[in-house]
Amino acid sequence: MLFNQLIRPGSAIAVSALILGAVHVGAAHAQAGEPKVRQAIKEELGSNRSAAQSQRRIERLDDETQGLLSDYRLTVRETDSLRRYNEQLERQIQSQLNEIAAIEDELTRIEETNREVLPMMLRMVNTLDQFVKLDMPFLQEERSKRLDGLKDIMDRADVTTSEKYRRILEAYQVEMEYGRTIEAYEAKLATASGDKTVDFLRVGRVALMYQTKDMEETGRYNPESGKWEVVNDYRESVLKGLRIAKKQAAPDLLIMPIDAAKGAK
Predict the structure, then answer these.
(1) Are 209 and 245 in contact (CB under 8 A)?
(2) Domain residue limits at 225
């Protein structure tokens, strides 16, 4: 209404002046608000740049976090593997320590056993030596050589205790076999007229006979007197025994001069 009142006939100059004034006022207001708009735009652009930088930092931190997480998981796996490996090594080390302790204990027992066994073995050798000397005089050279070998190894450090014991038992076994076997062998017999080669017949340990090669003389060893004596009455029986011992005849009953055991009736 005011505008209508202002625009009436004869007031064109006033209207123009009013419009110009309004234009100046608007321009003034626009000029006054332009720095604020630029400032707002500048602030928005800065905010966007900050946001972009923050996003890049976040992405970089995320990559670093993923890398650290991967390293952590790998370290955990390696740590777990090393822990199991160390536990296994501890068990093996403990087993080895137990084995070492057992070996040391066994060595101690072996040393103690050696101190006890060696005197016993020496007694066994001496007993066997005395037995051979008191026994019938058959295969004297062979048996004496065996005993000399036993005495020799008893003083040797390069022969183990077990080997020494084995050799002693072997000698005892051989002597035991003599008591249940029949044997014929050729050797020299010492007589008043000199040594002569004869065939010996050993029947266990109950009879030791001999016969000359021409079968003219037959004799036996007398355990009571410790001497040889002629017993030509047993010539055929000794000849038969020699053939059996040489496996030239089948086993058969032999008649031999055997002394009765002491105290027998």
Answers:
(1) no
(2) 182-258
